Amino acid sequence: MHKDQRCFIIGTGPSLTIEDLENLKGEITFGSNRIFEIFPKTTWRPTYYVNQDFKLIDKFQEEIKNVDCSHAFLPIDTLPLFGEREDFSYFVLRHKDFYPGDADFSTHINRFLGQGFTVTYGAIQLAFYMGFKDVYLVGIDHNYSISLNEKGVPVMKDDVKDYFEGSKASNKGLNLPRIVESTMAYMTARKFADKHPNFNIYNATRGGKLEAYERVSLDDVLKR
Predict the structure, then answer these.
(1) Where are the alpha helices (H) located in 35-134, listed in sequence order?
(2) Confidence class of residue 99 from pLDDT cuts 50, 70 and 90?
(3) Nearest to residue 71, comparing CAs of 28, 107, 109?
């Protein structure tokens, strides 16, 4: 339904600004996880909402039930929480231990969505299936105050913020980012895009640690 169009996948990292969101009004955007916490500060709303973190979904199910978007995508396991709705679609999240290899990249999300330990990877698969040609990542800092390394050991960074300004978010009681696996998943998507000339992924995040994709200026992109 979005053949040859462009979209913006919005993360919840500290680089995300209200000004950027306001400038994205009129664009097709994917929001995820706790993006609804920024709604009181902006009139921007995502076209699509994606979440695949079961602990987070359970904790914020009331907010997700009322999320302000055109359509939401959630794991099929959460159907009992939200029920059948015209504005909700459910996917099978296929888990596979892939490190240090490639993650599953689904070209048919009506069958399954590949687990990449980051909702952004899921949104990239959705974007491909919908026919988007150019995908721009915004607010994907890929840098966390606490995350798990390849051995599953928590790693702390005292000088790093996790979320956008004003977020009430906390990782307490939730899944910690699996930075090594998610990095491999991002590289899987890069390899996939390299083999599909009509599917391009760009990093328009202001700063951050994600280097899997060509960096572009969000300001320049929005002028096109």
Answers:
(1) 54-59, 61-65, 79-82, 119-130
(2) confident
(3) 28
